[in-house]
Amino acid sequence: MNSDLWVNIILVVLVLVFFYFRFGPTKGLKTLSAANFKQELEESKQTVLIDVREAGEFKGGHIQGAKNIPLSQLNRRLGEIPKDRDLLLYCRSGMRSKSAARILMKNGFTRLAHLRGGISAWTGPVSKR
């Protein structure tokens, strides 16, 4: 085999690994459908709902009761999040909430779930306050 073929094989493998880690499952994170996410919210008054979108997105509409802690601020605002409660995370599409979950897990949070498809998949009421 020539070296160009090996380079192409390595590039393809790297791209596949990137997509797996970016879009694949996150160990320790529950991924919930909109219906299951809504059920979790309704069943537990101890659940903390966190919207990890930026402030402008949050103001445009969010799930009632959500606390806005943008992913870009998460590391410096970890003290605002209780470790002894269930955390429900969401964003616009589900990608940032998965990233937020990874950060939280690295910092000792274990009771995590996120909304598959983000607020785009949400079928419940949205608040603009």
UniProtKB/TrEMBL annotation:
Keyword Cell membrane found: no
One protein family per Pfam: Rhodanese
TM ranges: 6-23
Organism: Cohnella lubricantis
InterPro entries in alphabetical order: GlpE_sulfurtransferase, Rhodanese-like_dom, Rhodanese-like_dom_sf
Lineage start: Bacteria, Bacillati, Bacillota, Bacilli, Bacillales
Protein name per Swiss-Prot or TrEMBL: Rhodanese-like domain-containing protein
Residue span(s) of domain Rhodanese: 43-128
Key words of the record: Membrane, Transmembrane, Transmembrane helix
SMART domains assigned: RHOD (SM00450)
